[in-house]
Each structure stands twice: as C-alpha cells, then as structure tokens.
C-alpha cells in the first residue's frame, strides 16, 4: 500500500482534463467487497476511454500489503489516469496509465439505514452524454455543483434529472423505487454512474431499468438510495427544489426487503422491520 | 516560476473531480497576451464554481521571475483547483484553492495561417450544461474523446455540435464564419469554451453570436478556427463524419481580414492576401 497515494505530476491528464476513472471500494477485513463488479466497471471505463486496464496482479497486489485499521471497515479510493503526454487533448498512443490509491477507515451511517433519509430535488440538470454514461470517470463537476446546492445536514442527498427531465440518480448514489409491486431504477444510457451495488442488485433481483420523470415517484410505494459503500438508505421525504416538502413515505417491510438484499451483499447487518410508529417523515 | 508546476497531492479535487479551471496563455517576451481576457474568464469560472480567485499579486508574480527561452514565444498553462478536502463531492467551505503553472516554449503553426486547414465533423455531440458553458473548467473528457476520433495529421481539427445538433466549436478552437457579408460565431450559453481571442474579437468587430446547425456552413463565404495561442486558421475543407469531403472554400481576402485582426491582437505577423491559385482545397 506504501506510496499508493503519492503525488501526481502537473502534466497528468487526470488533472488536466479529468482523463481517467476512479472506483470507491468498500474493504472489509482487508478484502474488497463487490470487487468483481468494480473490476467490470473499471474495464468498461477503460474500453470507452481507450485506457489500458491495469494488470490483475497490480490490482490484486493492492490488497496484499493492506494496512489493517482498528476497525474492520475501510474505503479504498482508486484513481486510474491516462498518465502524462499527448499534444493537447489528443491522447498519447499507447498511453502509460497511472494508478494511484488510498485506503481510509470508514463507518457507514447506520442511523440512515434505520430511520431513512430526507432528500431534495436539485435544480442542476445532468447533461446528456451517452459516450460517458454509466462509467465512473473523473469529470464530476456536475456532481460537485449539485452537491453545493444545499448545506442543511438534515438533507442527505439530492435527486438529479437530466436535461430532458428524466430521473437519473442522486449526487453520489443510485436510485430505486417500487411501484405497483415492481422494483425500478433509472436507465443509465445517457448520463449518470452505474453503481456497483446497483449492478449486483440488477443481477439478482427483478429490477426494471426505466425511463421516467420525477412524477413517477408520486406512485411509488417505496424509494431508496444506495451505493456500494453506504448500503441502502430508505427515503422518507423528498423536498421540492425550493426546499419545501413534496412527497413522503413511511418506512415499511418493502423498504427492508431491498435494504437487506443489499446488506447481505455488502456484509452489513440486516435491518429489522419497523414497528408501527417508527417512521417519522 | 520555480516550483510553479510541483506535483499535486492525491486528494486534490482537481484530480478527483476535475474541480477547477485552467488557462492557456500566449507569452511574448515574458509578457502575457490577452491577459485581461484570461483574467476575466478565470474570474467568471471562479464565480460559477464558487472558487476563490487568486490574488492579483499571486497571478502577476508569475511573470516577475519568468524564465526567458531562446525564442520570444512561450505558452503558460495555469491550473487552479479547489484544493484538498470536503466530504465526497461536497466542497469544503471556505476552499483553499491551489494554483499551479508551467511555461513551455512555443511556435505557432505558421503554415496553417498561410495555407489554411482541413477539418472534419466529429461524431461526438457535446452534452448541454448551461452551468458549465463558456468557462474553461477541468472536465474535458468530451474534448479528449472528440480529438481521438481521427489520427490523420492532414486533418487539423474536428467540428463539434451539441446534442441538439447546434454548432459549438472545434475540439480546441472557436469557430467563426461569414455569410451574406456578416461575421458570425456560435452562441456558447449551453456548452463549449468561450475563448479569449473570441472574446477580444467580439469586443472589437461586429460579430453576431448565433444558434445555428452545421447546414449554415453551406452558405458561408469563409470559415475560420481560432484561439489565443495559435491565432486564426482559415478552413479550406470540411469533411463529413465518414471522412469524405463535404464543403470547401478557396482562401480569399475575407479570410485575411479576420485573420489579421486577430494577429494584431496576438502580435503575430500580418498575412498577405492570397494570389489567385494559392488556395488548394
């Protein structure tokens, strides 16, 4: 792990152009969680950007000398850039990619598992760019701007639509809902990040990828946010762009169903079904 | 100038998210060219991203100890990032911005001034994001992907439209044309980079900012690309996306008119009007 996070030269294309990819991986007892899904997304990102995928030995080597913290959980942030060189935007060929990583101790926000979260709509609309949709590239100014829209810590996340008004994701999590008994998540072929937890759930549960505007949430029996690090947060309130209350949901068995599927995948404790009166939307 | 280009830490937000801005400045005899325009764009970028604008003393200090090369021309690349910190996408407040820069000797491509250039249409469409339009931010994967579409050195640049099919720019230059005697350039309120040479020309000449599809070029009497480093290249041929020839232009007095306006601003030599037979589209 030593020197995995050493500084990057001024001319690294990751800095100059965001010309690279990243992964944020939950690490439990020194072992990466959903590692296959992370590798698959990294590989898809390399294919789309024509980057050289790191050798399996280099990636697995990260975990050979991993430092163990006082606690069993950590997050590995991994950054792969196209390295230095090229003339302006034109990439060098072949590229000499640069891999950096850093491990940080981590604790999930357990209260949000149990009580659910309040979120709001963001006014920023994601630009539509099929060439970059789904992959976890380093061009994340839209997410930064969207996350800058509120300071209230009682609001956990912000809901993002694309410039055509279709639901996409939250600023750092994917979106799931149930309507008429069916699980759905936004299709991510035009923008957004296809999370590894989302992929693992899609592979195991009958979740439909759909094109839908925010109005679909008025019919939703349950709404969740999720990613591979935090697990799944049930949403109990969705505020409008102006901050006023819009939709609310009471925590229910449905919420716990998807949540516990995800928590089994991530090794998190199962959440007990709420008793009447638990929900406080 | 010493250490202006020292390495950046792993957790710099410019690397993690492209959370920052850059400027590429022509430097003549140790003095920046169109410096006011560069400062104005940097300031507008800081306003939009809520970054702290560097102090004038820090910016002007760059030129106090500038190394002089054998030749009078150089390019200064300046990168301003939001620095380290913040929780995920959420920016730290206040941010401790990081300024880096590097000076490189430079020679413009004079042959392209005189003979003009062949360009092609790119298949990539720029995503529409008014919040980032015009400023020179570090999220430039679209430009990298567009510039990767061709390898033929005989093709100087690629023409970019947005996802609605409107003309925007070339991968690293702005676009100007004349039709029915009027100078026009694409409006850049939805995507694209508002170049400093473009701004300086808009301030001095009757150039109209317009919304137009690529069909407008069929009516154009002249087409140019330009930026503050290379000056102005007349376009003599525009290939289709499949690489086949589309539109051609003979070099003419009109071409030299805008070109010499720009070259006076940049301190480049004036270009003589072509003699009949000079143009080889």
From TrEMBL, chains A, B:
<dbReference type="GO" id="GO:0008153">
    <property type="term" value="P:4-aminobenzoate biosynthetic process"/>
</dbReference>
<dbReference type="InterPro" id="IPR043131">
    <property type="entry name" value="BCAT-like_N"/>
</dbReference>
<comment type="subunit">
    <text>Homodimer.</text>
</comment>
<dbReference type="InterPro" id="IPR043132">
    <property type="entry name" value="BCAT-like_C"/>
</dbReference>
<keyword id="KW-0289">Folate biosynthesis</keyword>
<keyword id="KW-0663">Pyridoxal phosphate</keyword>
<dbReference type="InterPro" id="IPR001544">
    <property type="entry name" value="Aminotrans_IV"/>
</dbReference>
<dbReference type="InterPro" id="IPR050571">
    <property type="entry name" value="Class-IV_PLP-Dep_Aminotrnsfr"/>
</dbReference>
<protein>
    <recommendedName>
        <fullName>Aminodeoxychorismate lyase</fullName>
        <ecNumber>4.1.3.38</ecNumber>
    </recommendedName>
</protein>
<keyword id="KW-0456">Lyase</keyword>
<dbReference type="Pfam" id="PF01063">
    <property type="entry name" value="Aminotran_4"/>
</dbReference>
<comment type="similarity">
    <text>Belongs to the class-IV pyridoxal-phosphate-dependent aminotransferase family.</text>
</comment>
<dbReference type="InterPro" id="IPR036038">
    <property type="entry name" value="Aminotransferase-like"/>
</dbReference>
<comment type="pathway">
    <text>Cofactor biosynthesis; tetrahydrofolate biosynthesis; 4-aminobenzoate from chorismate: step 2/2.</text>
</comment>
<dbReference type="GO" id="GO:0046656">
    <property type="term" value="P:folic acid biosynthetic process"/>
</dbReference>
<dbReference type="GO" id="GO:0005829">
    <property type="term" value="C:cytosol"/>
</dbReference>
<dbReference type="GO" id="GO:0008696">
    <property type="term" value="F:4-amino-4-deoxychorismate lyase activity"/>
</dbReference>
<dbReference type="InterPro" id="IPR017824">
    <property type="entry name" value="Aminodeoxychorismate_lyase_IV"/>
</dbReference>
<dbReference type="GO" id="GO:0030170">
    <property type="term" value="F:pyridoxal phosphate binding"/>
</dbReference>
